[in-house]
Design brief:
Elements: E1 4-7, H1 17-32, E2 36-41, H2 51-64, E3 73-74, H3 79-92, E4 95-98, H4 102-114, E5 140-143, E6 150-155, E7 159-164, E8 172-174, H5 182-192, E9 197-201, H6 205-217, E10 224-228, E11 231-232, H7 248-253, H8 258-266, H9 280-286, E12 297-298, H10 301-314, H11 317-328, H12 333-347, H13 353-360, H14 373-377, H15 381-394, H16 402-416, H17 420-432, H18 440-447, H19 449-460
Parallel strand pairs: 1-2, 2-3, 9-10, 11-12
Antiparallel strand pairs: 4-5, 5-8, 6-7
């Protein structure tokens, strides 16, 4: 059997982190088994579904690095096929017309509540002849669900789960206006797309029982279900906006690399021993359903930051320069060369692209570079005079490398009879406009002779031309 999985988001909002994890698990499962992973947009809610949301979902999945097989299936366009199946079930006797009015249904619900019973349809029209239908009432089509026995789901994560059929009612398949319900649409689409495995959040577990009944009513093979525990916040409560539940595009803006987010999402509810750093190719090799736990995973931004820092240190310097350029660029050729030379030192000190861009900004700043308050405070008359003398000595420095510059500055410090900090601190302020930066010798070497001396001269108030 060829494995065919799918990811089927509803475009009523952004692609949230839970949906992204579901997409990743489906994609990894299909790739692990040499199968296919399909994408279906469940846009049947015409009021809430938007083109902007559809684009955001597709763009978010592409940024995350998940490629899907075949064309994207748009569920709304398949509504005639869904209705066709409902009518075929009607003809086969596995579904029936229900002529209950909205008022009758509400009375049915009120009676159930008053008697302390679960609110469900009572089967009023299950065995009645349509000739008894009241005039002017457009019927819905309901599933003729089994009333005895039980429906069993052998779930790849939850194990065997059973519900008594008397707890389920005859759900609506086709509304009075001829539009299909979510339950019918999902089953028909999954059947027609040849889906063999349905991997989704465990908030859909109760839907699986009803969907299994629709499959069996049509004599279709029921796919293998696997329901993943939801993601919770750090406090163990269901993830919500107060925890910072965000769309995937927000994680991109927050400066995370897609490979880091893939690794992080993979470890949210799936494990392989004590392994934490799991590149995507390794994840494809290892991923399978038994590795998914039954307990909800907890969002941990500190762990995500650490993972992202690891992947940034592994990333190509040129790629990082391009990503920084998206935030503080564009760069000319000289600026790009400076950042390429600086990137090894910069990426070792940052955990997100936001930090990386902020830390890189001083390298490409135009002279005179801006000074933060703490850096400006270091510009005392004594410090400026000392840096003026240093600049005069460095102007004739033959070799402009970290090693040579360190030797020259240490010799200058000794000649001045001061500690290194008395020179290094104002020098850092002159070069970076801040009191923190990569090592000053590294910064000077990266900036180059002319730019470094120019910045020192600006700070000291001397012209070195």
């Amino acid at each position: 059997m060829t494995v065919i999985a799918r990811f089927a988001p509803s475009p009523t909002g952004y692609l949230h982190i839970g949906g992204a994890r579901t997409a990743l698990f489906n994609w990894l499962f299909a790739r692990h088994h040499g199968g296919k992973c399909l994408l279906r947009i469940e846009d049947t809610d015409r009021v809430r579904s938007t083109e902007a949301a559809i684009k955001a979902i597709i763009d978010g999945l592409a940024w995350l690095g998940l490629d899907f097989d075949g064309d994207i299936v748009m569920q709304f366009k398949r509504a005639p096929r869904h209705a066709e199946v409902a009518h075929a079930m009607l003809a086969a006797g596995t579904a029936y017309y229900c002529y209950c009015t909205p008022e009758e249904l509400e009375a049915m619900r009120e009676k159930a509540r008053a008697e302390g019973r679960p609110v469900r349809y009572d089967g009023t029209w299950r065995d009645r002849d349509p000739s008894e239908a009241p005039p002017g009432v457009k019927p819905v089509i309901r599933l003729r669900a089994p009333q005895t026995g039980s429906t069993v789901i052998r779930d790849g994560v939850q194990g065997e789960v059973t519900v008594d059929n008397e707890q389920l009612d005859d759900l609506v398949l086709l509304r009075a206006d001829g539009t299909p319900t979510y339950m019918l649409s999902v089953v028909v689409d999954d059947h027609d797309m040849g889906i063999t495995h349905v991997i989704r959040g465990d908030d859909h577990l109760t839907n699986a029982f009803r969907q299994a009944q629709i499959y069996r009513a049509n004599n279709w093979s029921v796919p293998e279900f696997s329901h993943i525990p939801l993601i919770h916040g750090p406090d163990g409560a269901k993830l919500s906006k107060r925890h910072g539940a965000l769309g995937i595009e927000a994680y991109r803006e927050m400066g995370y690399l897609p490979e880091a987010l893939r690794n992080y999402l993979l470890r949210l509810g799936w494990g392989h021993g004590d392994d934490e750093i799991i590149p995507t190719e390794q994840a494809i090799s290892w991923f399978d359903l038994p590795g998914i736990g039954r307990a909800p995973a907890r969002l941990d931004y500190a762990k995500l930051d650490n993972l992202n820092g690891h992947y940034m240190r592994q990333a190509d310097d040129g790629r990082l320069v391009d990503l920084v350029a998206e935030r503080i660029g564009p760069f000319n050729q000289a600026q790009r060369a400076i950042l390429l030379a600086a990137m090894a030192g910069l990426k070792a000190r940052a955990k997100t692209l936001v930090e990386l861009a902020d830390n890189a900004r001083f390298y490409v700043a135009a002279r005179p570079i801006p000074m933060d308050e703490k850096a400006a405070a270091l510009g005392t008359e004594e410090a400026r005079a000392r840096l003026g003398r240093l600049a005069g000595r460095l102007k004739d420095q033959a070799e402009w490398t970290e090693t040579a510059l360190e030797a020259a500055i240490r010799a200058f410090v000794e000649a001045e009879g001061v500690k290194l900090g008395a020179v290094a601190q104002p020098l850092r302020a002159a070069l970076a406009g801040a009191v923190t930066s990569p090592g000053i010798f590294e910064v000077m070497a990266v900036l180059g002779r002319d730019e470094a001396l120019g910045r020192i001269g600006d700070f000291a108030g001397v012209a070195l031309d």
